[in-house]
Amino acid sequence: MSNKPYYSSITKKLIMSLMGLFLLTFLVVHLALNSLILFNKDWFNEGAHFMGTNWFIQVFQWVLFGGFALHIVFGIVLQIQNWMSRPTGYKRRAAMEQSPFSKYMIYTGMVIFIFLVIHLFNFFFVKMGWVGNGIPLTPSGEEDMGQLVINLFQHSGYVAFYVVMILLMGFHLDHAFQSAFQTLGLNNKTYWGFINAFGRVYSVVVTLGFVIIPLFIYFKIV
Amino acid sequence: MDLKLKIWRQAGPTAKGQFVDYDVHNISEDASFLEMIDILNDELIEKGDDPVAFDHDCREGICGMCSMFINGHPHGPQKATTTCQLHMRKFKGGETITVEPWRAKPFPVIKDLVVDRSAFDEIIQAGGYTSATTGGVPDANAIPISKENADLAMDAAACIGCGACVAACKNASAMLFVSAKVSQFALLPQGKVEAKDRVKSMVAKMDELGFGNCTNTYACEAECPKEISITNIARMNRQFIGAKLG
Amino acid sequence: MTKIDSKIPAGPLAQKWALYKEHQNLVNPANKRKIDIIVVGTGLAGGAAAASLGELGFNVKVFCIQDSPRRAHSIAAQGGINAAKNYPNDGDTIYRLFYDTIKGGDYRAREANVYRLAEVSNNIIDQCVAQGVPFAREYSGYLANRSFGGALVSRTFYARGQTGQQLLLGAYGALSKEIKRGSVKLYTRREMLDLVISDEGKARGIIARNLLTGEVERYGAHAVLLATGGYGNVYFLSTNAMTSNGSAAWRAYKRGAWFANPCYVQIHPTCIPVHGSYQSKLTLMSESLRNDGRIWVPKKKEDAEKVQKGELRPRDIPDEDRDYYLERRYPAFGNLVPRDVASRAAKERCDAGYGVGNTGLAVFLDFKDAINRLGKDVIKARYGNLFDMYERIVDDNPYETPMMIYPAIHYSMGGLWVDYELQSNIPGLFVGGEANFSDHGANRLGASALMQGLSDGYFVLPYTMQNYLADQITVGAIPTNTPEFDAAEKAVKERIQKLMSVNGTETVDALHKRLGLIMWDYVGMARNKEGLKKAIADIQVLRKEFWGKVRVPGSTDGINIELEKALRLADFLELGELMARDALHREESAGGHFREEFQTPEGEALRNDKDFMYVGAWEYTGDDQEPRLNKEVLQYENIEVKTRNYKTA
Fold first, then answer.
1. What is the distance between the terminal CA atoms of chain B, rounded to a whole angstrom?
2. From the candidates C55, C58, C71, which should be mutated to test the interface with B, based on the most B CB atoms within 10 A?
3. Domain tally for chain B?
């Protein structure tokens, strides 16, 4: 073997799955925070303030970015290798996959990436003061992140875009959950049914959670 | 029954191939798929044409030699069945059947439907055995092995090395094949001695040969004529992690 | 007549092998590197021998006809492998395995070889377990056994219904290990087309055809081992794989190696019956099914006729109207009589008009009682994969309705003659596994083929070949530019050209099917003088027709499957005649060879020990000349020769 660093297919996949699981966890935290807005905008703002000032979170967000980056880079490398492994395709190929959304991971992944960038522009970069006109302020003069969210979700086009993006992310998650466990070798007869079911429930709950927030705001249900 | 066949014809490894249409008539429902191709070939020979080259040998589903991609499935549409044991009663009269070779970079086409699967031999050579040499081994009953593990090892060892898993996988990954062999030995005390080196070198060889990466889509398990389970892949992943960590 | 020296070591039977090993010649490790060995075939015998010889340090070149050593037809053996371990404590011993094998072979096998086989059988199981072969186990974690035909003990080790596969993959693993180590060089998709004999009369190499490029290649070595399997495909329909052929052995025969007992072929009683003229092969249902399945035909002829027409379902025939003919005729062994006995009994019933299936050429193998006694789950665990296979092929569910079976050609006990060292009469030419004639006499017991293949490969040939090679260390590398190689290559190329230039009208398969019918009708389960004479005449006619009418399309370059088949059929057309000749000369019934003129009033085989207790080793004397018969007289010093009796224990 040559001296240049060699990442075996399984090593690359392990990195993918570990980062993926990390991102799955992040999504739960993100959703929990977002859902506060359905109950009380102030709670949401407090949450946002905590996330924006706590030193641990401040450090950890860079870890998060790193996780994203690794997940994306290795995902692309694996995908390119996979495309190269079959130079001549089939004329007729039946759908044989037992995890159907797996076929589109690179595409749903790209969509999520684009969404992520837009999302950063809409919120994070605004908060950092890099783009836009700054965050609205509460009557007491504090940053009103909640209002920023509510303002954005007044546009029907944006809501529709957001919902579609989240649904595509849901497809990504549906395959991702069980796949990560399989790659980590955490698959046996006893638990596999549970892991699959849990993954399905996770992706549905997280997707629905992210979807209802803009809809509730737009239709002024809260 | 009468059938239309669309078969990949390719004169040699570097020749450009194409699909050629054939009609076959009066095929019995009780004929096997390969016997149907035999009949076609007899007609081609009588006409002075080159018969379709395809791999086959035991014709009882165990040698792993037969290898056609039929109507979008390796070994055809019937579950847990090799091409040689696929019977024409599984098709409808008048149907068009598309027959292609296995497609994967490490399985280059040699002629028509014949592909080179020596990559699998190379993977086995990288460590798919115990290094016990002839003689000087203990009594067969010296080490008891739980029936459960023996049965699981047998499930994995049932692999016939046909390559359907690679053919089915959208990434042409060989993980099911490799993991079946790794699993068999991981489950047996005789295989544990060399377990770490085995999994590392077999995976490295698999990567080197240009097979794709597993993306856990499980088409392999669905199409495997011997129904090798994807839990073997998980077991190999565990073995691999253990080997790298320890 | 040539005096045959079988090189059986002196001494008591039980010590012959030990004494041989103590006194044989060995090659020192440094010299082993200088010795080349060619192994043709990668089944149990060839694969195991190549791996073991490689481990010892010899340079081995191993050849297989398929794309990988793992495809050899040993892989298809289902039921199991015998060994005298006596793990079940049911009274097995090495002597008993030896005795059963000799008796099962109808007293036509060589005592010393069979005893050695029984002796090393136990080492085989140890070896395979060390290789990680997943044999079936009991809940205790210890190895499980089952019983097979011709034995009163349970001595058969098994890995589901895929024992041959697992043992072969074990040998393939060992071989792969040596290939990686560099001691063994693998040549795939090669077919041996001739044996090369040096000017001093030693086997020194082979001519092989590269099946991908069509190139004719030369390979030299200090010794050649043929492990090329049996010749059952002479019948066209058999349980053998499509590429299984007799050519390597036949080419050796034409170079002077003797062909022993070619008429001894085994007809396996439990195969799926023939169903159409397009059929390409027959599928075996493991003999292990006879452990729990009961074989029967209707007692009343009218019931049989209704079943044949599909007017009566087998399960509607009450027990009292069923004829469990094996249990009736052979109370002690019942459904577990040896294969030749079971096959003939099925033929007898069908010929008498009691057969079932739409052709009347089938009998029932019924699991109704076993399912009632043990439950469907137990039967499924034991035979599930076989039942599934039956259903895939026949489209009937054997859990609901009895299987239909009929005998089919399965194994050839005959083969190239070898001495105790498994060396043919040509020095340096060794023969292992089914390709030799050595251990099964006139009939092979179930689960003994795997035992013999691995015994030859792992434990016999690595010793005996060394004994031969010990004085070859000074010879140096074997050149392939000798006149002998030139002549052999030229002959092969001419034969190929001759075949290509016929350009006739008949396909190879059409001609092969006709040969198969002649063989099945006259040299099959029951033979007689007139039939055999007719077979010889018919085969001679067919052979002429073949060389005048065969059509081989394509070219000699690249893959040409029709050419491969034509080359094999050309040899089968000669071998078939020798089989008929051997069957004609052997005026007795023994094991797989049943002459209708020689039977007891009850229809049992009638041996003639006075005149035929010998191995018939045929010697080639030239095309269109009668071969010469050499006789190796068999001496039984440790076993009392009796009429086989499976009626009482």
1. 60
2. C71
3. 2
